[in-house]
Task: structure prediction
Amino acid sequence: AQKVTQAQTEISVVEKEDVTLDCVYETRDTTYYLFWYKQPPSGELVFLIRRNSFDEQNEISGRYSWNFQKSTSSFNFTITASQVVDSAVYFCALSDENTGFQKLVFGTGTRLLVSP
Amino acid sequence: EAQVTQNPRYLITVTGKKLTVTCSQNMNHEYMSWYRQDPGLGLRQIYYSMNVEVTDKGDVPEGYKVSRKEKRNFPLILESPSPNQTSLYFCASKLGQSSYNEQFFGPGTRLTVL
Result:
């Protein structure tokens, strides 16, 4: 069965600090996709990144970076020099071959609070 | 503007009063899906549809119905709502069945069943 664990329920940082959000996943499939979504206080879900299981390259997009490690089944998300606008709930999600890629299995989310 | 729309955005109702939450996308996406978000549980899939007239159950389909008569619309029907269906509901769509394509989410519908 598929499972995504985000053990950090809530993280509080001060602006300009770096912060890493952890994501650990479980799947029996060799082909799968991992996603990160952001949910700001306004409530909508914003797609941030997609990674497939065959691509272990880390990715950097501005202040955001993602570290995908198959050996530890982790797909962690780092925000460098955090800003107040980064305050949101962040969800990690998995989609795999077992479900025909027809659903996203979400973690329970990590609430990030960035104070000035 | 490419988007997924949901209506209503907020709804307070009473137990047993049938309701429909509409979902529409203007991106010509084949795949659409409904999720509910509950504190401590993340988002869980209710139903999904791979194309017109093709629907299937997700992880928590009990108490819900869906239909897909047109490509752009995917309404969620609660025939007899109960308080445990109080939740934040999201509709989503993606281009095709392949998981390579990310899902685009609507703005959410906050439902309270008294």
About this structure: Chain B touches chain A at residues 31, 33, 35, 40-45, 48, 50, 56, 58-59, 88, 90, 97-100, 102-108, 110 (CB under 8 Å). The first strand of chain B starts at residue 4 and ends at 7. The mean pLDDT of chain B is 94.
